[in-house]
Amino acid sequence: MIRGIWSGVTAVATVLLAVVLACTTVAGRLARLDRGDAIVLLFCGSKKSLASGLPMAWVFFPPKRSG
User: pTM higher than 0.90, yes or no?
Assistant: First the structure.
């Protein structure tokens, strides 16, 4: 809406989701989880997390600049 803010939010969220998916995949392999548990970790570990919500909060509520 304002200066293409949604394209920036989408890009940040996409990158963060990719990072979280990669981390949960690696964590499942390191923990030697069976296939079913690894899938649950992959899907549940990447949803509704600070990793996707915090960058959007920074975009919507940027820190006030002094001066």
Answer: no
